[in-house]
Design brief:
The chain is an alpha+beta fold. It contains 15 helices and 11 strands. The model has no long low-confidence stretch (mean pLDDT 90).
Length: 455
């Protein structure tokens, strides 16, 4: 077998592979012999099918499969052994492959087009200082958070008289129209869904009161009319005219009160014993949350610094063609052009991170992935306690999550952990400048970063 790499530019190359009969025939003969032992063909005893018939029936497909497997391994091994910085996948020359006469040729020549990233070095000393944001979270943020928690863990009470925000239960009616049926149902009217101009009609109602209203004025869209009547949105679309509603009951959300029951719901059973401890613990959680948000913003700053200070050239035309080919029928050339800058940015970042990881022997273990998943489960489910039963529950949910989606969840967590380790290594090499900012200033920075970033 002959292999030759030809570079037309710094980022474009082709890999020529010449395959001779000696490269593939031994394995082809072995597979055909195995076919002969196993073939069940009418008129022949098992294992007694003439080789010429086996060759006629299976020879071409076995040859094609063997050469394709040989090419795949050869290309992958060549790229690995020669440490080529390939981006995208090798793309075979289809015209050349289609011209092959599999029935008469003994020697074959193939060409694969490669896209290469240019060589680059990571010089941490050349990178600028990176802000380390310290978000000032104090009494105002604490009070606002506690009020939100009171609303989230609110209870229900029965009210004597309706007010804005209440849920009003009762009977909704509309007399029959010509050639029509009357409408009548037991339902609940959420006052939050009622149009502002009509809302006063529904305030101050008591049990037994009846209110008359225009359904299309009170509930301006099909979805809200469906919610009010218990119908599907498309069924509620035809409703119009005056309806009457007679009140049976009124319920109201009541914010949770400070006390042990509220503390346990928010932080876990017996995590704190009084309001002072509760406020301290919630403030810790707030600062921890802001710490994660600060770390996310810092990550964006680090990535932008890498892109701004490490020059990498990509085979843009090759990658655009590769994206079109691999997503054939699912993406247009215009869409590729529109999305290419963001794609190129992600490719460059991954190249840089992979090089840093390789140079510093960064690895991710299963235990790393499991610990990260445990943390994610605790955050999503609000598991703040630390007892054996809760830990077992967290472990069970975490392990089940990693096994779901045919291993895709595991790979997502693995990639996240890999990225986290690389970023932490980079941070250890850079100068971090502490910068104290208010919550509002931080939000402004986040908004600014959300605008498109050019690679």
């Amino acid at each position: 077998m002959e292999i030759a790499l030809e570079k037309s530019t710094e980022t474009n190359a082709s890999l020529k592979i010449k395959v001779s009969k000696s490269d593939y025939q031994p394995e082809v003969d072995k597979k055909l012999k195995d076919y002969g032992r196993r073939a069940s063909i009418k008129g022949f005893r098992p294992g007694k099918v003439p080789p010429s018939l086996i060759q006629k029936m299976y020879g071409r497909s076995v040859l094609v499969d063997e050469i394709n497997e040989l090419l795949k391994n050869t290309v992958n091994n060549y790229i690995r052994d020669n440490k080529l910085q390939v981006v995208g996948d090798p793309m075979p020359d289809r015209e050349q492959a289609d011209a092959i006469d599999w029935d008469s040729q003994n020697e074959f020549e193939f060409r694969y087009n490669l896209g290469l990233a240019s060589d680059f070095e990571v010089d941490f000393d050349a990178l600028p200082p990176i802000p380390a944001y310290e978000i000032q979270a104090g009494e105002t943020e604490l009070d606002n958070t506690i009020e939100e928690l009171k609303t989230r863990f609110s209870g229900h009470s029965h009210a004597e008289e309706s007010a804005e925000g209440d849920m009003i239960y009762g009977e909704l009616k509309q007399p029959a129209k010509e050639d029509g049926e009357p409408f009548e149902t037991k339902t609940a009217l959420p006052t939050k869904q009622i149009a502002a101009d009509e809302l006063p009609k529904f305030i101050g109602l008591k049990k037994g009161d009846t209110v008359t209203f225009d359904i299309r004025k009170a509930f301006a869209d099909d979805k809200s009319r469906g919610l009010a009547t218990g119908l599907k949105a498309e069924e509620a679309a035809d409703l119009e005219g005056e309806f009457t509603f007679t009140v049976d009951d009124i319920t109201r959300n009541e914010p949770a009160e400070m006390g042990q029951e509220f503390f346990d719901k928010v932080l876990g059973k017996d995590a704190v014993e009084n309001e002072e401890q509760f406020r301290e613990k919630v403030l810790e959680v707030i600062k921890s949350n802001y710490g994660r948000e600060s770390a996310s913003l810092q990550r964006l700053d680090i990535e932008q610094a890498l892109l701004d200070n490490i020059a990498i050239s990509l085979p843009d035309d090759f990658l655009k063609q590769w994206l079109l080919t691999t997503n054939e029928g699912n993406i247009t050339e215009t869409e590729v052009d529109e999305q290419y800058d963001a794609f190129a940015r992600s490719v460059k970042l991954q190249l840089i991170k992979n090089k840093i990881a390789s140079a510093n022997e960064i690895n991710v273990s299963y235990e790393d992935v499991l610990n990260a998943t445990r943390g994610m489960v605790r955050e999503q489910f609000g598991f703040y306690g630390d007892d054996d039963q809760l830990n077992q529950t967290v472990d069970k949910i975490a392990q089940q999550y990693l096994m779901d989606e045919k291993g895709n969840n595991y790979m997502q967590m693995y990639n996240r952990m890999f990225d986290d380790k690389v970023i932490e290594l980079i941070k250890s090499k850079l100068t971090l400048e502490p910068r104290s900012i208010t919550v509002d200033e931080f939000k402004e920075l986040v908004t600014a970063r959300q605008s498109p970033v050019q690679a």
